[in-house]
Amino acid sequence: MNIREIQPKDNNAIESIIKRSLESFNLNLPGTAYFDPQLGSLAEYYQQYPNAKYWVAVNDNDEVLGGAGIGPFGANADVCELQKLYLTPAAQGQGIAKQLMQTALSFAAEHYKLCYLETFQSLEAANTLYLKFGFRQLETPFPDTEHGACDAWYVKDLAQ
Questions:
Q1: What is the CA radius of gyration of the chain?
Q2: Which pLDDT belongs to residue 121?
Q3: Is the pLDDT of residue 118 over 70?
Q4: Which pTM value belongs to this model?
Q5: Model confidence at 127: pLDDT above 90
């Protein structure tokens, strides 16, 4: 398994992984990543921003197993967002999400002071992972959220 920056050839695979994952939890709802207009062109989308990147985990055959990104959030230049952390079902439980998180948070700490994320309470494994990485749960979302359907929000101080 290798983690590398997303390339245009990965767009269709990661879009499918994200959509299938959300569908499996009945979360293919308006106000989720499922309907993000850039979902089919993540490689190009992340290239638009100076302090944003998306990484994919790939196997030895260069097949995409999942991915995660860091992008700016709102108008505050000190705040980023952990975005679109999803894996194929076969890749889950192997530590790949942890490796993607470490990659993303290391990059985030170089450019931002806080990392925000939005998710769903029903995604228990994801929520457990965020807490293990030092995120603290919030009672309400940050202003300017684009994913109004989410019902769990976290923030991490990257200086710690």
A1: 14
A2: 92
A3: yes
A4: 0.94
A5: yes
CA 85 to chain centre: 3
Q: Three-state SS string across the chain, please? A: CEEEECCHHHHHHHHHHHHHHHHHCCCCCCCCHHHCCCHHHHHHHHHCCCCCEEEEEECCCCCEEEEEEEEECCCCCCEEEEEEEEECHHHCCCCHHHHHHHHHHHHHHHHCCEEEEEECCCCHHHHHHHHHCCCEEECCCCCCCCCCCCCEEEEEECCC
CB count within 10 Å of CB 63 equals 13
Residues 80-110 pLDDT 10s: 999 999 999 999 999 999 999 999 999 999 9
Rounded-to-integer distance, Cα 6 and Cα 54, Å: 6
